[in-house]
Each structure stands twice: as C-alpha cells, then as structure tokens.
Design goal:
The chain contains eleven helices and 13 strands. The chain has a six-stranded mixed beta sheet, with helices on both faces. The protein starts with a helix and ends with a helix. Bound molecules: iron/sulfur cluster.
C-alpha cells in the first residue's frame, strides 16, 4: 500500500462534523517538520471563525497590533516589514475578509473587520502515517520531535502493519497507535495517545546526527502562535488538495474514499501530480471527473465555503466598485 493512497483513505475515514482534517502541513517553530495529517476538534468560537473566510487568515495579520475599533497606518502596524511584505500581508488579510482598508491622513491604513476568535479550535491531533512499519524511515526521530515540542494535543502513528512489541518499544510512549485498513476504512486503536503539554515550554529537535542533537527551546507563546498558524492552514487547506487528471481512467467513487482519484487502469488510488499525464501508459485523454470537492468538504465537515458574512461584505464592496 502506497503512503499517498493510505493517507487519503485515512483522511476520508476520520473526517466528520466534529473533525476537520488536513494533510501535509508544517508542524514546527524553528525546524522543518511536515506532519502527514492534522485532525482538529472545533472549539466554542468555531462558528465565528467559519463566518470570516473559507480560507486561511494570515498569521502575521492575526498577531498584528490592530483591532476592529480604529484604523491604524499600515507602516505602524508592521514597522519591521519591508513595503512589499506589508502589501502581501494586507492583501491576503483583506482577501480573507479579516482586514478592511482605510486611510489615516491620506496614508494606507487597516483595521480588523472582526476580532479574531482565538478559541475556534480545541484539540489538534497530529497523525503520522506509516503503512509499512518494516520501512520506518525517520519515523522514530519525527515522533520524538513531535512529543518533545508539544505542538499537538496528541500524536498518533497510523499503520496498516501488524504492530509487534518491538515496534511499540521503538516509539515514544506518548504516541498513540492506530491500525487502519484503507480498503474497508476500519480503524482500531491499539494504544491510546497520552495528552501532551501544549501550554508549557517545548523542546524542538532541529537536527540529529550521530553523536549530536541540535535543539531549541520553544516558549509557550511561540507554541501558541505556531498552533494557531497550523490550525489556520489546516482550515484553509483541507485534504482534497489534488486536481483530477483529464483522463477517462480516473473514476472517483470506486476507491476506498469517495473523492480520492481512483484509477481503473492502475487499479488503485493514484497521485495525479506525480503519476498522471500523457506520459502514463494508461492515459486516455478525456474530461476530468465532475466532482465539486469544496461542496463535498462542506457536506462532510463543519468547514463552510463562502460564508455569509464574507458574501455580505463582498456585496457591500460591489456597491462601491
Ligand atoms: S493518467 Fe495514468 S495513472 Fe492517471 S488516471 Fe490516467 S491511466 Fe490512471
């Protein structure tokens, strides 16, 4: 079982009204750790967050010293940023419906449209996929990094393998273990994860070489910002990040998850970005499958496309366009 197909099948199996799912996201503060899957439990302010935008609100805009009350000059809000960086942040925050543009004595200024609802997410669970435990790669070091950093409330290893005592002993004891069957979607919890300390100082493993480990400590506030950034990216990105190929062989619905790009010719889920195109021996030019991935995500989870508040704001802007 290829890891890509395993990952899509797992994402489809765990997504529901109470669980937002995204894949392949940065889960670091100073280092470079990409986690396979993030599962988010919505918090009490979720509806307020969902009402702002279906996309990601830029982290720099959320942390900027500007509120909804009074507009501030852009150069005062981001004094340490270069002009092109300021423009980039403001453009994205305005597009997300989080900032509004104004003028203060003729200078470009911004204010928040609404206060950021910090408690929109509750638990963040990081899931590392390793369908075949006999080819573990960097698994142990990756999970050690996740546990000592404590960015996630819980960390889980998902595998299709039979898990032996030796496998368990090689993993940090805080890491939960799921056995997942991508064909049936069945999931068994072989070991519960231990909750991690997300509001205390963490230790991030930057690099490990034989004999040396390069680490950095991470303060609670750095962690809190990194968690928020991660949750925002997860909300905007989701897990259906593929584009269907223009190939008659691709038939979503026949695979283990309804929307995954299943290829009749290959007899499995394929990764369109790396496997599909005229160079593929089975390529049969045609229309891409007509599946509205946003509509499916909205139907399966609490993610909301094109929220009402945003639509109203856009309508208001159009009147002045
Ligand atoms: S391009 Fe090849 S791998 Fe992709 S859907 Fe078509 S036949 Fe399958």
């Amino acid at each position: 079982m290829r890891e890509y197909a395993f990952e899509l099948a797992l994402c489809g199996a765990i997504e529901d009204e109470e669980t937002l799912v995204a894949r392949q996201l940065g889960a670091h503060v100073h280092g470079r750790r990409i986690i396979d899957v993030v599962a988010i439990d919505p918090g009490p302010a979720f509806d307020r967050r969902a009402a702002i935008t279906e996309g990601t609100i830029p982290s720099a805009a959320i942390g900027a010293p500007v509120g909804p009350g009074t507009a501030r000059r852009v150069r005062d809000v981001f004094p340490d940023r270069r002009p092109e960086q300021r423009r980039w942040i403001v453009d994205r925050a305005v597009a997300a419906g989080f900032f509004e543009r104004e003028r203060v004595d003729g200078d470009p200024a911004v204010r928040q449209v609404s206060r950021y609802p910090e408690r929109w997410f509750d638990r963040l669970v990081g899931i590392e996929n390793k369908p075949d435990l006999d080819r573990p790669g960097d698994l142990q070091a990756q999970l050690q990094t996740d546990v000592s950093l404590g960015l996630f409330d819980a960390v889980v290893l998902a595998t299709a393998s039979h898990v032996t005592g030796a496998h368990r002993n090689r993993l940090p004891e805080e890491v939960g273990i799921w056995r997942f069957d991508p064909e049936s979607g069945d999931r068994a919890v072989l070991r519960e994860s231990t909750p991690l300390e997300t509001d205390s100082q963490g230790v991030e493993i930057i690099e490990q070489t034989p004999g040396t480990t390069d680490i950095r400590t991470v303060s609670p506030s750095e962690k809190s910002r990194a968690r928020r950034r991660l949750a925002e990216r997860a909300y905007g990105k989701g897990w259906r990040t593929f584009d269907y190929p223009g190939c008659e062989q691709c038939q979503p619905g026949a695979g283990s998850t309804e929307t995954a790009p299943y290829c009749e010719w290959a007899g499995r889920i394929v990764d369109p970005a790396s496997e599909c195109g005229p160079d593929c021996a089975g390529f049969d030019a045609g229309d891409s499958p007509a599946v509205d991935l946003s509509a499916v995500r909205a139907d399966r989870s609490s993610w909301r496309p094109d929220p009402e508040g945003r639509t109203r704001r856009q309508a208001g802007l159009d009147r002045y366009g």
